[in-house]
Amino acid sequence: MKKSLLVICASWIGFFSFSQNVEFKSSNFKSDKEGFKKVEAVLELGDSYFEKANRLLFGVKDYKGNFIYAKKQFDIAQNFNPSNALLNFKIGVCLFNSANPESAVSYFNKAKELDPNCDPFLHYYFGRLAQLDGKYDEAIAFYLKFTTDNKKAAEFTKFIDQRKKECENAKKLTAAPLRVWVDNVAILNSEKDDIAPSISVDGGDMLFSSRKKNENTPDSIGEYDFDIYASTMEKGNWSSPKRLSGDINSKVDDVVNTISYDGTTLLMHRSVNNQSDIFESKLVGANWSTPESMNTNISNPKYNDRFACYNHTGYKIYFIRDNEEAENGFQAVYSGMESKLRRDYATTTFLDVLNSKFSEGPMYITIKGDVLYIASQGHGSMGGYDIFVSKFVQGQWTAPVNMGYPINTQYDDFFYSPTVNGKFAYITSNRPGGKGGYDIYKVTYWGPDKTPLVSTEDFLISSIMQPVNDNAIESKVDVTRKFLTVFKGNTIDLLNAQPVAATIDITDNASGKITETVNTNSATGKFLITLPSGKNYGITVKATNYLFHSENFDLPDGGEDNIVSKTIQLKNVAVGNTITLTNIFFDLGKATLRIESNAELDRLVKLMNDAPKLKIEISGHTDNTGSAAMNENLSQQRANAVVAYILTKGIDTSRLTAKGYGSKKPIATNDTESGRQQNRRTEFKITSN
After folding, report:
1. pTM, whole model, 2 decimals?
2. 163 shares its domain with 291
3. Which of 154-163, 391-400, 459-468 has the lowest mean pLDDT?
């Protein structure tokens, strides 16, 4: 922890003021009566903002910019008279309820020095400062003093009880820290607020929002609006952020909420008519589309709606809504899709188990749908917003559990965005040590590197979007195992290496059914696929005027999470081009086609039907195990078997030839099992078109 915040005010009892408290009375400013009149008006305006902000704060509502507007007026009065205890206290309150609460210390100390009884809430805020400084017993003592010295303290029992619980929670959690590193990602952060990191599931791309200087006009207090920025992981480091172009950014606050798992859609919230509504944008080529407001069940004109996320099916959206009818603040709700075609969403349902007596914050649901992360000011918080985890058990979410220290601190910690393997996550925090305001931090879970699922990446493909994504306290929260594989890559032209827009079909080879279809990005050729383990998959990549490309890979049941990538080079339908039929399977040492081969063969039949002038040679190849004569004979029989299957589908025999090459044309070494496996293959070559 940094140097104590409370050096000046460590002791209250026995304190004697040596400074004079100068009241805002005309008799104290006889030499500047005109200036005093102006300051009176300034104080009146500042007090109106200050009182409104406090009503909202203790009503657990969004106090928006009212403390900031109040401080702007108070600063004018402070320049006129810096020796008023109550004014110093009020400025301290405004600063404490900002992204930099420690900046309030000198003002609270000055208020205490001038008049320790200027406001009963001075005890409360010294308790808050002690809590931030990790002096939890001192903080509790301040809270008790507040309740005994303040006649209206009973009105704030809810808050005092929560503050004391936070202190007890913090003592327990800091005594049993998690095995994690939490590091400031300096390149992403500025002196202003940098929030809402939303990453692709493989951790390769990030969108976030920042208040740093932009092309828009700052507001009346000199603050810029939130805009959305993008960064890409390059050789283990994040690139310098770039502001997204186009209509994704407006002249009001644009705040990232979450990227869909495939990286093609984005949920965000935007300020509209002084309230927040949820919007959706789609990645089209290199640019994000103009955000469109969600229907009124999600973006309701009666409420502030924000911090939305997709569930794992994409048919529900979880988000946070202010609940004007309740004593608590923003609450977690969800809305399910009634019509996929119209993208209509039903009325919202409050998630009671996730909601506390205070405000809830950003949520994230893992791709398997079994774990939800939510920020909350309530539940078992250490102070401010903490990140909690809930699990989906027997059809419902469990009570949220604090993720622990140092992911959470006495400060605000929220916006949890994990990679699919659970090894890394990104959060937002205003903890000490940052560049200023809210900063983005990387969470790294300790543990061994993940074991690869397969021996070679040649069997795997994938990709990732790139914008051109009173409870018991637990001392340890296990990272949930998801047993998924993220495949990333891109589709390019073999000859010129330019991106190719393609369609990718994922086939369950056991059933022959296509389980998923994705389109690669038209500008970059990139795409993202996540698949569960326990199946053998075929992947087919198709693009206009190109030969289809196929891959086969097996994900064993219970295999660990993995992230692999591959660039798919697509070949034009030109004479001489050759393609390997990866998903053709024969019985061992025989020429008997297995049923798992049918899907691949039917795709070849479709290609020949789509290109009626196409003529091909089917070739069989083996490794060098056994005699040359035996290998050539086996490869010829296998080529014949493939041709025989195609002929049964109505393709004319004049368009097909079969040739067995045995081990004469290896594409890899025969000195390893992996190489021999690659050499055992079936290909087709275009002989005429």
Report:
1. 0.80
2. no
3. 459-468
